[in-house]
Design a protein that fits this description.
Layout: E1 14-17, E2 25-28, H1 30-34, H2 36-53, E3 57-61, H3 64-76, E4 79-83, E5 93-100, E6 103-110, E7 119-127, H4 131-142, E8 146-155, H5 162-165, E9 170-175
Parallel strand pairs: 3-4, 3-7, 7-8, 8-9
Antiparallel strand pairs: 1-2, 5-6
Length: 176
């Protein structure tokens, strides 16, 4: 891949205070997606990471993992497997639970989404508490996939989501 000019992607992230509730600072990736150059740059940064990791499959949690992961898979010419909430996938699924601030939630993926030995990269917009990524890793490994790493547009450092990734390698384009 040819050398390209560095972009400050934080210029394309909107900060909304007290959304979705009081005391929360929301990092909105919509402006990044609305700018073709910024969106392309972000995708290509993850494509380069995925290339270095020699991945065979991209897995993305709904919904913004689709927005980031699908163009990465397309650029690499490899498959994309969605991770969704229960009842959203039409065939046999496996599931994993994860803890949220107030309770437990569940994620699912098709039981045939990953072939044993496939090198998998999880791609998502945001790493916050790490619950989603931990549940996704659990399902990938249950299916015999090999975790090549994780890639995120944004990490909210103070929430320590990286701890749920364990020793797996990961790339983050922006830290807050």
């Amino acid at each position: 891949m040819k050398e390209r000019k560095k972009m400050n992607l934080k210029d394309y992230i909107a900060t909304i205070e007290n959304y979705p509730k009081e005391g929360i600072t929301f990092r909105d990736i919509s402006p990044l997606m609305a700018d073709g150059n910024a969106y392309s740059y972000a995708v290509r940064e993850i494509v380069q990471y995925a290339t270095d990791k020699k991945v065979d499959m991209i897995v993305g949690p709904e919904a913004r993992g689709f927005i980031v992961g699908c163009p990465v898979a397309f650029e690499l010419g490899i498959g994309f497997a969605p991770v969704r909430k229960p009842g959203k996938l039409p065939r046999e699924v496996i599931s994993a639970d994860y803890e949220k601030e107030y309770g437990v939630d569940t994620l699912t993926m098709h039981a045939d989404a990953i072939k044993p030995g496939q090198r998998v990269l999880i791609v998502d917009d945001l790493l916050a508490t790490g619950g989603t990524v931990k549940a996704t890793i659990e399902m990938i490994e249950k299916l015999g996939g090999v975790m090549a790493g994780c890639a995120f547009l944004v990490e909210l450092d103070e929430l320590n989501g990286r701890e749920k990734i364990g020793d797996y390698d990961y790339k983050v384009l922006m830290h807050y």
